[in-house]
Amino acid sequence: MRENANARREIGALYGFRVLMTLLVANFHIWQQSWLPQTVVLLGKRISFDYITRTGYIFVDGLILLSGFLLFLPHARCRREGTKPPAVLPFYRNRLWRILPSYLLAVLAAYFLFALPQGSYDASEGARRLDLWSHLTLTQTFFLQPYYGTPLNGVLWTVCIEMQFYLLFPLLARWTRKKPGLTLGLMMAAGWLYRAFIYYKVEDTAMYINQLPAFLDVYALGMLGAMGYEAGRAFLEKCAPRRKTALQWADAAGLALCIWVVLQILHAQCTMGLQSTALLRLGQLKHRLPLALVLLGCILTSAFLPRPLEWLLGNRLMRWLSGLTFNFYIWHQFLAVQYVRNWFPNTLHSDPGLQWAFTVLCYASTLVLAAALTAVTDGFARWGKSFCSKRTRKQSAL
Q1: CA 125 to CA 128: how far, in whole Å?
Q2: DSSP, res 87
C-alpha cells in the first residue's frame, strides 16, 4: 500500500522537464562550438529554431526553479498533512553524497588530465592555485578568473550556486512552513531588488548576474509552486471523475499557452543578445522573473495532465535520462571544448558534415560517460548513506 501511495504522488512529468531543460542548455553550449545551423525544412517550409538555441543558457534558471520546487515539495506535503518535516542532517548528507562525488571527479579530472598537461596555467601560478582551490571549495563564483576564465569546466558555477542554497535551505524551509507569506515574500523581494540594483547601477554586470541573491526569487517561486501543487492535488482528489478529466485537459491547454509565452520571452532575449554581450546580460536580469513565473506555470499545468500526455514526459526513457542529467550537464560543455581543441579542424564552422559529426559525437559520448559515471557515483552514494546510517544506529545503541 505504501508503494502505491508513493507512486500516485509522484509527478512523472517533471522527469521530462528536467531532461528537456538540460538538453536546451547543452544544445546551446554544443552549438557555440559547432555553429550548426538550427533550421529544418518541413513540407517545403524552412523553420528556424535559432532563437531557441541562442537562448538555451536561460534554462539554467528553469533548472534552479525546478530545484526549489522539488526541495520544498516534502515540506509542503508535511505542512498540508500536519506530519513531521524532513530532518536536517539527512538532507545535508544526501545532498553531499549525491553531488560531491561527481563534482569533485569532474574538477580533479579536468585539472590533472587536461588543464595541467595542456599548459593552461603557464602564465600565472597564483591563477592555477586560485582556480583549483576555489573549485574544490565551491567558491569559484566569487572570483573573476575561476568564474569566467577557468580551463576546468565552465558550467560548474551552477553547482556552486546550488550548494550555497543547500546551506540555507533547511532554515528557509522552516521559516516557510511557519510563515510562508513573509518568508517567500522576503526572498522574492531580495532577488528582485538585487537584480534591479545590478541592472540600473552596475556598469559591468558580468560578475553579478548569476550570484545566489540573483536567484532567490526563482527559488522562492519553486517553493511556492510546491505548495500550489499540493493544494491542487488535494483538490483534484475530491473532484468527481468527469470534472477531474475536464480539469486535466484544461491544464493541457494551459501548458500550451505557457510554452507559447516562453517562446516569446526567448525571442525577446535573443534580440537583446544579438546586439551585444552587455545587453544579453541585462536581458537575463530583466527576463529572469517573468521566465520563472511562466516556467512555474509549465510545471504546475504539466503535473496534472491527462495520463496519455503525462506519459510523453514521464515515460521510462525520460525517467532513465533524468537520472543521468547531472553528470550529463557537468560534462557536455567540457567535452565539446576538448573535441574542438584536439580533434576538429578550423573548417568546423563552415563544413556541415563536420558540424553534424561533432554534434552527434558530443551528445553520444556525453550520454555514455554520464551513464557510466552515474552508475558508479550512485553506487558510491548508496554505500555512503548505508555506512552513515549504520554508524548512526550504533551510536544510538550506545
Answers
A1: 5
A2: P
What are the tens digits of pLDDT across the range 59-106?
A: 999 999 999 999 999 999 998 888 888 899 989 988 888 899 999 999
The CA–CA distances, whole Å, from 363 to 27, 53, 154, 344 equal: 9, 15, 17, 16
> Is the backbone of residue 82 left (phi > 0), alpha (psi -120 to 50) or beta?
left
168-215 pLDDT tens trace:
999 999 999 999 999 999 999 999 999 999 999 999 998 999 999 999
Distance (Å, whole) CA 54 – CA 206: 18
* pLDDT tier, 4 (very low <50, low <70, confident <90, very high otherwise): very low
Secondary structure letter of residue 204 according to DSSP = -
CA distance 142 to 304: 40
pLDDT at position 113 over 60: yes
Q: What is the DSSP letter of 113?
A: I
Distance CA 61, CA 288 (A): 7
Which has the closest alpha carbon to 150: 277, 332, 334, 24?
334
Identity of the amino acid at 250:
A
Question: Residue with C-alpha cell 581543441?
Answer: 341
Please say if the pLDDT value at position 140 is more than 70: yes
Mean pLDDT for the stretch of residues 155-176: 95
Check: CB of residue 38 under 8 Å from CB of residue 31: yes
Amino acid at 199: Y
Nearest to 127 by CA among 113, 141, 146: 146
Amino acid (1-letter code) at residue 286: K
Question: Cell numbers 521530462 correspond to what residue?
Answer: 16
How far apart, in Å, are the Cα atoms of 218 and each of 14, 156, 215, 343, 394? 17, 19, 5, 39, 41
Residue 248 CA to residue 263 CA, distance in Å, equals 23
pTM of the model: 0.91
The CB-side HSE value for 125 (13 A sphere, CA atoms) comes to: 0
Cβ neighbours for 132, distance < 8 A, ≥ 6 positions apart:
107, 111, 152
Give the SS3 label for residue 372.
helix
In terms of Cβ atoms closer than 10 Å to its own Cβ (0-12, 13-18, 19+), residue 103 is buried
Q: At residue 393, does pLDDT exceed 90?
A: no
